[in-house]
Amino acid sequence: MLPSNLAEASDRPNFCLAVLRLVSEPSIDEQIRQAAVVNFKNHLRSRWAPNLPSDSNIPAVTPIPDPEKEQIKTLIVPLMLSSGPRIQSQLSEALAASVNGILGTANSIFKKFRYQYKTNDLLLDLKYCLDNFAAPLLEIFLRTASLIDSAASSGGAAVTFRPLFESQRLCCRIFYSLNFQELPEFFEDHMKEWMTEFRKYLTTTYPALEKGGGDGLALVDELLKGLARRRIACELLKGLATNYKEQVTSMVSAQIQNMLASFAANPAVNWKEKDCAIYLVVSLATKKAGGNSVSTDLVDVHNFFGLVIVPELQSQDVNGYPILKAGALKFFTMFRNQISKPAVVALMPDVVRFIGSESNVVHSYAGKLY
């Protein structure tokens, strides 16, 4: 098809779907499919949410109709999973240019709710945004989570995950902005859906990211910059707890118990659940005024120490599960003043053993305790 004819065709309804069908047809020559997917990507970039031209003499670009957008969103990820690396890469960029483009714009707009003083006008703006965006945001977040799960279960390559995790990163940033001034009713009613996914990203390993070489490392970096990063997730929870301490404490305490139950069911497989539980207690601990001691309302320190921490400290294998050992030693370091002196003295021989650990982090924490 000549370029002029292609331009004319691009204004017709379902043009994108026709190109996508061409891309998905394995009997078509690979170079033709490659050219088609590049056209598809560029078409989405220019027409998914087109800007009005600054020059009135330049005709406005015809946007992709909403029904066609819905079909594209349904078809694009399965096609990514079944395509070769080159086509996957282009489809990944196309997905980022569509849904993630909208999320990126929304993220920029909603940032103002983090930095402006609470006024009636600001709260009216926030209410308008919540009424129109809170439900679609949750829908996008959960739908993308489902796509990530599908990609993981089918062995998707790192390039498949890139736009999906970027979408989740943007969703989490928007979540933070919309919850900064206060906890809206919609998010309070749907906190379980959000926190279930947050927990998943705190504890789940995605093999494709570890095997993806440079792409995989870059994607891990993107993921770590989002809410899935433990430190940022905990900072968000601390921020929410400023005004909603009781709700956050109850929710996180329940999650900690669920994680520990999961670990107990299969310690060898679910050790990260225990690691995450310890991390939450340590990271969300608060310093007491006028001193260096800390406290927590998430767990009973003495029970948690005896049931969760002591078994790690008494483990005879000082090199096994070093992340768990480091977490246990850090907990011991932070809450030492709340643990009875006889218990501390009794555990010192165990602590000394960890000075010989191959892990620098483990023997450093052991050295601080000793």
TrEMBL record:
GO terms for molecular function: nuclear export signal receptor activity; small GTPase binding. Keywords: Cytoplasm, Nucleus, Protein transport, Transport. It is found in: Cytoplasm; Nucleus. One of its GO terms (cellular component) is nuclear envelope. PROSITE patterns: IMPORTIN_B_NT (PS50166). Coiled coil: none annotated. One of its GO terms (biological process) is protein export from nucleus. SUPFAM superfamilies: ARM repeat. Residues 2-82 form the Importin N-terminal domain. InterPro entries: ARM-like, ARM-type_fold, Importin-beta_N, XPO2_central. This is Importin N-terminal domain-containing protein.
